[in-house]
Amino acid sequence: MNSQFNSLSANRRSIYALGNNLSQTPKAIFDLVKQTVKNSPTAFNSQTVRAVVLFGTSSDKVWEIVE
Q1: Cα–Cα distance for residue pair 38/18, rounded to 1 Å
Q2: Residues 6+ apart with CB under 8 A from 55
Q3: Could you tell me if 26 and 55 are in contact, meaning their C-beta atoms sit under 8 angstroms apart?
Q4: Domain interval for residue 28
Q5: Residues lower than pLDDT 50 in the chain
Q6: Torsion sign over Cα 37, 39, 43, 48
Q7: CA distance 46 to 67
Q8: Can you point out the beta strands (E) in 2-45?
Q9: If we measure between CA atoms, which residue out of 65, 44, 45, 43 comes closest to residue 54?
């Protein structure tokens, strides 16, 4: 049982259907991410979380690098 769990855990993957179609405005997405990062708990309240939000050609450039 334990080895089966370890095997399944090691091989799990999350698959996201990412695309360029936005249902929200870039500003709304940016504001949501900003509030989420600000209100997320951190160890010892250190607030070291950072996020990068890219749209358009900037986003395309990043995806070209990571593909």
Answers
A1: 25
A2: 22, 26
A3: yes
A4: 20-66
A5: none
A6: positive
A7: 33
A8: none
A9: 65
Taking the CA atoms of 16, 53, 25 and 33 in sequence, report the sign of the dihedral they define: positive
* 25 lies in some domain: yes
Structural domain total, the chain: 1
What local confidence, expressed as pLDDT, does residue 1 receive?
A: 58
User: What count of residues does the chain have?
Assistant: 67
Cα–Cα distance between 21 and 41 in angstroms, integer?
30
6 belongs to a structural domain: no
**Residue 42's pLDDT is what?**
85
What does the pLDDT read at residue 5? 83
Model pTM? 0.64
Q: Residue 18 has what DSSP assignment?
A: -
Kindly state whether residue 42 falls inside one of the protein's structural domains: yes
